[in-house]
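anyone seen this seq b4? input:
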Amino acid sequence: MKFIHRISILLYLFFYINTQDSSIISKSFEYIKNITKFNRNSIKIPNFKDIYEKYFYNKTDILKIAVKNLYSYKNQIPYDYHYLNLCKPKKILRPKEGITELITGQRMSYSNYFIFMNQNETCNLVCVKNFTNEEIEKYQWLIHRKYAATYYLDKLPSGHLRNTINIKTEKDYSESINYFFGIPIGFKRSNKYYIYNHLVFYIEINEQNNKYQVVNFYITPYSAKQSSEYECINYEKNSSIYLSEFSNNSTEIINNNNSTDLQNRIFNVLEDDIKRYHQEAEFQELEPGNISFTYDVIFIKSNKSFTSRYDNYLSFKGRRKYHWGSLIISNILSLILTLIIFFILSRTVKRDLDKYNSNVALGDNVIIDEFGWKQIASDVFRPPIHQKTLSAFIGTGFEIFCLIMVSLILYFIGIIKPEIRLKMVDTIFICFILFGVISGYVSTLIYRNNGGRDWVKNSLVTAMLCPIISLFVFGLVKLLLTFERSNAGLKISQMAFLVSIWLFVSSPLVFVGTLLALMRNNIKYPCKVNALPTTIGEKPWYLHLQYISWFIGIIPFFTFFLELGYLMRSLWSFQVYYLASFFSLSLFFSIILTSEISIVYVFINLCYGDHKWWWKSFFVSASPALYVFIYSIIYFFHLGLTRFSAIVIYFLIMILISIIIALVLGSLGTLLTFRFVFYIYSKIKVD
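predicted toks r here
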C-alpha cells in the first residue's frame, strides 16, 4: 500500500504545480494525513473534479487579462510591461507566482483590460495616454528592436496572426495566416513610427452545463487614428486591417525556390495592394499628444476540449516546418554508426581474450606473452590525479543526467508542458535541488573506490561545483540586466533566496547522498595495484589528448546537430520546442556514441601501455561540448544581436550550457568506460 500512498502524493503535487492554487496545498496535506490512517476494509479514492473548478466560468464572471514582459529576440533584454507607464493601473495586482518568476523577476500583473464571459464588446476605452517626447523616444527604441508584449488569459499566453507566403516554384506560391507568440507594440514605415492602439481579443470557449471554459486565446493588433478620444472607427470596413497585416514585417517569406527575382516580384504585387488601400486608411503615428487605447472582445463557440487547449502552441505554422526526414535519417545513421563501433570493438576484445586465455590453458610449460593491455593490469586501477575534482565532475554530471531523464518522463506523462515554460522550469529547478542526493552518492562512490579518505572535502567540492558556477553566471547576467534598467535585474532578495536554497537544502542533500554511499562496501577490483607505477611507453602523437580532443568530438556532435538547432530557436527565439521524442533519441545515441568513442580511445591507449585513462575518458567524452559552443558562435551571427549587454548575456548562458553538456557526457562516458575496463580485466587471470 506504500505504492498507493506515493502515487496519491505525486498526483496532488502534479495538480498543485499545474494550478498553483493554494487551496490544493491544504487539501493535499489533509489527504496525506488521512491515508496514513489506512483502513484495510475501505479505500477512499480522492475526487479530483474540484481541481479544475477554477477553470469554469459563469456568464457574469469577469475575465482578467494579465500582462507580463516586453521582449525581443533581437535584443534578449526583457522589460516590464509598464516600463512606459502605458495604461498602468493605480494599484498593481499580481497573480500567484512560481519559483522561477520570483528568481528571474519576470513577474506577471493584471491589466486594465476587463472582459465579461461570453459578452462581445466593441470599442472599450482602456485609457488616453498623453505621450511626452521622452516617452516617444523610449517607445521608438522598443519598436525599432522588434519588442512585443505578452498577454495572458486564464493562463493561456496570447499570440497573433501573421501573413505567410510560401514560395515553391515561380508559378506556385501561396498565402496563409499563421499563429505567432507575442503582440507587437508598433511598427516602422517610411521612417515613421506607428503604434498599435487597438486590440481585438478573440476568445474561444467551450460550454458545458451553462458554464464556460476558455480553450483558445489570440489577439489581433491594429493601428488606426481615431476621430476622437471615445470614438472608434469601424474596423470591419476600414482597410487598416489589411495594412496592419503587412506592417512591422508581418509578412514572412518562405522561399523554397531560392529565387530573389521571384521574391521581389511578389513583394511588388503586395506593395501595389498596399498602395491601393493606403488612401482609405490612416495609421496612428507615434507623436506627442493624446492617443486613445481601445479594445474589442469577440467570443467564439468551440467544440475543442479543455485538455487540448495548448495544442495551438505546439503546432505553430509560422516557423519553418521541421525536417522530419532529416531527423529520422540522422538518427538512423547514428544507430548504424553505433552498431558498427560496437561490433568492431567487441570482436577485437573477444579475440584478445581468447588468445590470452588459450595461452593460460596450456599450463606452466608455456611462456605466456603478456601483450597489449594485459601488461598494465597492475596499474590500470591506479587512482587518478585530482580525484576530488574528477569525482565531483562525475557526480554532478550524473545528477544532471538524472534530472534530464526525469524531466522527459514527466513530459511524456503530461506533468510538465513545454508551452508553459516557467512552470516547467519550476519543476526542473525543484528536481535539481532534490537530486543533490544523487551527486553526493555517485561522487563518494567514485572517490572511495579510488582510495580517497577525505570524504568531507570531496562532498564539499561536489556541493559547491555546479551551484557556484551557476550563481556566478546568474549574478553577472542580473548585473547586466540591472545596467539596462530591466525589470529582471539583480535583487538582493533573489540572491539571498538562491544562496539559502543552496546552503540549507541542496548541500545537506549532497551529504545525505555521501552518507548513503559510505554505508556501501567498496567495489573489489579484479587486479591489485602495485606500489610503483609502470613507466608509460611512447605512442603516436595523434593519440595525445591535446590533439585528438579537438576533432574526436565532432562525430557524436553531429548526432544531435539538428536537434540543437531547434533547441536554440526555442531558447532564443521564444518558440515552443515539443519534439521530445526526437530529443530523447538524439540524447540516447549521442551518449552511446560518445561512450563508445571514449572506450575505443581508452582501449587503444591501454594497448600502448598508458594506464592513466580516467581524465582521458572524461575529456574525450566531454569534447562534443566544445562544438556546441562553436555552434553557438555561428548561431550568434544568425541571431543578429547588437546590444553589448545582450551579446555578453548570450555568451554567458551558452558557456554555462556547454559546461553542463560537458559534465553530462563526460560523466556518463567515464562511468561506462570504467565498466568496460572493469569487465575486460575481470575476464583474465592475473598473478
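The longest helix spans residues 644-682. Residues 162 and 267 are 16 Å apart (CA to CA). kinda curious what u guys think
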